[in-house]
Amino acid sequence: MTGELSPIDKAKFVAAKKAAEYVEDGMRVGLGTGSTAAWLVRCLGEMVRDEGLRIKGVPTSTRTAELAREVGIEVISLDSAKWLDLTIDGADEFDGNMNLIKGGGGALLQEKIVATASDQMVVIADIGKEVETLGAFPLPVEVIPFGWQTTQALIEETLVSMDVLGRTSTLRMNGQSPFVTDEGNHILDLHLNRIGDARQLSMVLNQMPGVVENGLFVDICDVVVIGYGDGRVEVRDINAGTIEESMLDFAEPDNLFTDLVD
Ligand SMILES: O=C(CO)[C@H](O)[C@H](O)COP(=O)(O)O
């Protein structure tokens, strides 16, 4: 990459760089998906290359697996890792309780399985992802292709009965065809505007036949590392109850695999 990073990329990069400090030698680390998580993978690749860091990475998508291998991280399956020390991933939204909407990149199923199988989940995000109430970002729901329209109708009826605001849903597309997840499923994006009770909605959605998983991450995230376009980072730790702010000494990541596409 040549030239300055845009403020948004800078925010993502500093969040990722700060979160990389959580990774210690010998750890088994869940590697998230998306543009912010890609910065993390590049930062870890740099640590492997330049500092001799030895980690085993469990990617949450085929995209992340490819990038991790390209930057020199040893990739293993979740089943061979069994349990992870840490997962670091991005988010589409996070609220004051560190509940999340994820799945904008379509990887929510593996992301939730991997994060739940970790001692700690650290979310990395630019400040634009913070919301007072979840729901402005359409909630991704992974559904089985068989009878997906019936599942969609069931979801919409249920939302009406729950009096959830905004009751439309759309099938995520990839050009002219439905988007297909790594597990061969489709994604319905629920346009809700505002999610009052994320825990309840998550449980109700997951009880429906045809629904595989939804993008609400409730009580899974432990730490949020928030990046700002000027290089500041804020670390919120829900268990320690602390908020720390620091200015990351931002160095243009010119040797950080930025030629590799996430
Ligand atoms: O949940 C995700 C992928 O399924 C991503 O973490 C989320 O969409 C954020 O992506 P980005 O860092 O590109 O904004």
Written description of the protein model:
The chain is α/β, with parallel strands linked by helices. It has 2 domains: 7-131 and 219-247, 3-Layer(aba) Sandwich (Rossmann fold), CATH 3.40.50; 139-213, 2-Layer Sandwich (Alpha-Beta Plaits). The protein has 7 helices and 17 strands. The longest helix has 17 residues, at 35-51. The model has no long low-confidence stretch (mean pLDDT 93). The radius of gyration is 18 Å and the shape is globular. The strands form 4 sheets. It has an 8-stranded mixed β-sheet, sandwiched between helices. Strands 9-12-8-13 form a 4-stranded antiparallel β-sheet. The two termini are 13 Å apart. The structure holds ribulose-5-phosphate. The site of ribulose-5-phosphate (5RP) has 18 residues, from helix 2 and helix 5.
List keywords for this structure.
262 residues, alpha/beta, Rossmann fold, Alpha-Beta Plaits, 2 domains, 7 helices, 17 strands, 29% helix, globular, binds ribulose-5-phosphate
Concise summary:
This protein has 262 residues and is an alpha/beta fold.
Question: Topology, pairings included?
Answer:
Elements: H1 7-19, E1 28-31, H2 35-51, E2 56-59, H3 62-70, E3 74-75, H4 78-81, E4 86-89, E5 93-94, E6 100-101, H5 108-116, E7 121-126, E8 139-143, H6 148-161, E9 168-171, E10 173-174, E11 177-178, E12 186-191, H7 198-206, E13 211-214, E14 216-217, E15 223-227, E16 232-237, E17 242-247
Parallel strand pairs: 1-2, 1-4, 2-3, 4-7, 7-15
Antiparallel strand pairs: 5-6, 6-14, 8-12, 8-13, 9-12, 10-11, 15-16, 16-17
Helix pairs in contact: 1-2
This protein binds ribulose-5-phosphate.
